[in-house]
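Subject: Interface between my chains keeps coming out wrong

I've been trying for a while to get a sensible model of this assembly. When I model each chain on its own everything looks fine, but I need the whole thing in one frame so I can look at the contacts. Pasting all components below, labels as-is. Any help appreciated, I'm running out of ideas.
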Amino acid sequence: MRILAIDDDPVFLELLAGMLKMIGYAQVTTMPSGEEALHELDFSGMLYDCILSDMQMPDMDGAALTAAIRQRTAYRQTPILMITAMNGKNAVDDAFAAGATDYITKPLDIIELRARIGMVDRLLAERRRLAEFARLVGQRAAAAEIKAEFDTPILIPGFDRGIEFLAMENYLLTLGVKRMYSTSAFAINIKNASIIFNKATGATYVQMLGDVGAQIVDALKTEDVMISYAGSGNFVCMTERDPGQSPDDLEILINIGLMDFETIYAADRLPVPQVRVGEPARSAFLSPTKPTRILERAIQSAMNPPEKRSKNGQMVA
Amino acid sequence: MNAIDLRPGWQSDHPLAPAERLFRQMAAERLDILSRAWARLDSGQQVREAMFDIHHIAHMIAGTAGSLGHARIGLHAAEVERLSLEDAGREALLHALRPLISGLADLLED
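Reply #2:
Try treating it as a single job with all components included. I did that and got this:
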């Protein structure tokens, strides 16, 4: 794995490179600032697999650097891990919003570093598998192989408001207790996703996901919502604010928007995607469940017809 | 600098040896910056610049010292960083700076 590490402290860069070497990652290039890192990405001819950046740097901080990296086509999906002091954990919010994948705390702990980089390694392996899958789809390979990928969360090409599902889970884990309780998640299930998946080519299916994503963005009344595709035809939205509209209203708006694509889908002999919006899920006070449980509950709600949901509407994780 | 200067048990080819060497090399420069900032803070002159230097240096030391085996220096630096972030009073910061400065000085004498 080719890693680019950025920090204004040369000692930290040596330390990080040394620790990465200890856990088996020796291809590390270091840069002392965001500006020099961008120059390296643009002109070195090297394609990096992972970027590790300090959060607090003079001139260009980690969030600004992340945003600039994400503007480069070759690095839209590259895992970017923020490195931050324990007392700077709140600042990683901006980095997540700009497209960061995860964060590591200073001082470095080799066990944590191994776990986080291992996660990146698995993510890259999954992407390679997806690329191979796309190649197989292109060749109209075995249907069994195609079906196996229906569940996989993907970053939808061209859907700029979407963040990786893994990044959304990581973001939830950074929230303190207070912010966790003020955060809610709701999911949007494409009811006929599996039908479309089985009938369409891989590229058309992904295009359909992009169409739904765009309609979700249009229908939402606020921009303060993180959106991610969780696989199996489910989008998950997360917000700390009141979305300002009921699930039913949102569902109608999205479905009306999708009807505009009817002729395009008809040309491919495909049904128009139809969505169901689930009830918002929140963490319960004094609940010992893991923070990411609200995402599971949100998806569960969207996948079940309303008559099977709890009577008071809101789901508590 | 040779293997004797490294943390006990680390050979010169240990992956963290270059970081440890650099940490020690930079300790003198950082000690100098902190000492000058301490004097400015104590005299009440150029306090803003002194606070900036203190926070910057403490942040960098806090991020590396512990991982290189200098746990006490790391803790002192983290405390100084915390106080500078919280705009704690001058006295509290001067007080917290003392063990950090002497820790760096001890390191240079090793």
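Reply #3:
Confirming on my end. The first strand of chain A starts at residue 3 and ends at 6.
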